[in-house]
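Example 3.2
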Amino acid sequence: MRKIYLLSTFFAFCFFGYGQEDGSSFAGAIKLHLKKYNAQSDLAFENKDWEKGQVLFDSLVSNYLIGTTFEDYTLKSFEKRKIKLSSFKKPVFILTYASWCIPSKGEVPALNKLAQKYSKDVKFVILFWDKKHNVKKIARKFNHNITICYAHETYKNDANIVANLKHTLGFPTSYFLDQDLKVVNIKRGGAQPDNKSTYVKAYTMNYNAFREGLGSLLIEKNITDEQLTTN
């Protein structure tokens, strides 16, 4: 991904009026801890200390967000007009995007390959923060093993999910949930290969980045030694 879009994060705390505040829900934990995280991460990014920014993000996730429970959001998809997260009956991998947030080289093929391999065990969801007509073109790049959804501030009933996901950790962000919608891990999108990277290198970096996150949902499977392929 060219860059991580964090601007919405800086204004996030103003939007919250949803969820529990005891920290057991994802929304509640975000409400309790996001303000302090934003203050520290804003300072790190102002100082161009990208490493510290990542450490702060990882600390927020590991100390406060892992183990919390997602709300059973209702998503709008192209295949089915509305679908609840709980209806998947399996672990869920959600990657948030926007139609103008250009995937890095090799990112979409890596996601398609992983979805082809693991869709029986994990539900793959790409959630675009866009209106439906803006998503149609890019949605065609993903294979049928990935459910493409969309949400926008102007759509009825989308305010909750937009406030709790879009205006908190920014995007692209990867959420890894177990079948009970508990957070197993959260990561920043995929890899970020530079412009000089070959297609094979970029594909491999993205494949490994997403595969690492999936490993937390597929502990019983040996995915660390599988062969990489660019097919």
